[in-house]
Amino acid sequence: MTTDTLTRTANVILLGPPGVGKGTQAQILVDTLGMVQLSTGDMLREAKASGSEMGKRVAEVMARGDLVTDEIVIGLIEEKLTQSRDAAGFIFDGFPRTLAQADALEALMTKTGQSLDAAIELQVDDAILVDRIVGRAEQARAAGQPVRADDNEDSLKIRLMEYYKKTSPLVGYYHAKGILKGVNGMGAIDTIASDLAAIVKTASA
Ligand code: AMP
User: Fold this and answer.
1) Residue 50 C-alpha to ligand 1 middle, in angstroms?
2) Dist CA 99 CA 198 (whole Å)
3) Is 8 a catalytic residue?
4) 136: CB partners within 8 A, 6+ apart
5) Angle at 135 between CA 130 and CA 138, to 5 degrees
6) How do residues 51-95 score in pLDDT, each as one tens digit?
7) Torsion of CA 89, 180, 67, 160, to 10 degrees
């Protein structure tokens, strides 16, 4: 994959329900534009794998498909933002997920002298999400890879409800702030990736 360069830092949020492909797309932006992915889901899974006290506390909540507390995820993001700054910019993947997290992120960015350039909503039909997530679990199983504890239909339903109740209001929030963008999340991975890259490049111009 070719590495492009951005004229200036672009910090972007990827919004969208579970299974929409935020993680896959964030990874492509890391590979092609040299951005830094900040995934609170990955950070929480690392904490769980490390066996830390916090990891133990969140494991059950995550397996159920519920959201962990704002305090925990805001703390994780604060640590990253105060420790590092990246020339190409951050991709927030799976954070913020509540209005309180969105307010906290804005305050943290201001405090560290940074700004948010775009919140990009990956738009998708609910009906295909269940298939995608169940498919992801089946593929992992067939390949002998570990399956995420929350990739099953019961927790997916809870994750979707959490998304619509707590996270989808962020679409209106970022629209009101004038930084909301939408991308069709149902096409080919490459098409979505180039749509996202175009938005990031415009945001950094
Ligand atoms: P993800 O990998 O983004 O799908 O996140 C997996 C799980 O981690 C979620 O279902 C939540 O239990 C938890 N989680 C990740 N990010 C957040 C967040 N920003 N706020 C609350 N819970 C989160």
Assistant:
1) 17
2) 27
3) no
4) 19, 148, 151
5) 130
6) 999 999 999 999 999 999 999 999 999 999 988 766 689 999 999
7) -130
User: Which amino acid is present at 201?
Assistant: K
Instruction: Give the other-Cβ count within 10 Å of 152's Cβ.
Output: 15
φ, ψ for residue 15, nearest 5 deg: -110, 150
Burial of 58 (0-12, 13-18, 19+ CB in 10 A): buried
- Sign of the CA dihedral 68, 66, 169, 183? positive
Ligand 1 atom 15 nearest Cα = 41
**What DSSP character marks residue 147?**
P
Residue 18 near ligand 1, beta carbon < 6 Å: yes
65 lines ligand 1 (CB under 6 A): yes
Q: Which of 80, 132, 136, 166 is catalytic?
A: 136
Please write the tens of the pLDDT for every residue from 124-139: 987 777 777 778 888 8
Q: Which atom of ligand 1 is nearest to the CA of 96?
A: 19
- CB neighbour list of residue 172: distance below 8 Å, 6 or more residues apart: none
Whether residue 85 lies in the annotated active site: no
Ordered strands of the 90-93 beta sheet: 36-39, 90-93, 12-15, 118-123, 180-184
Q: Is 201 a catalytic residue?
A: no
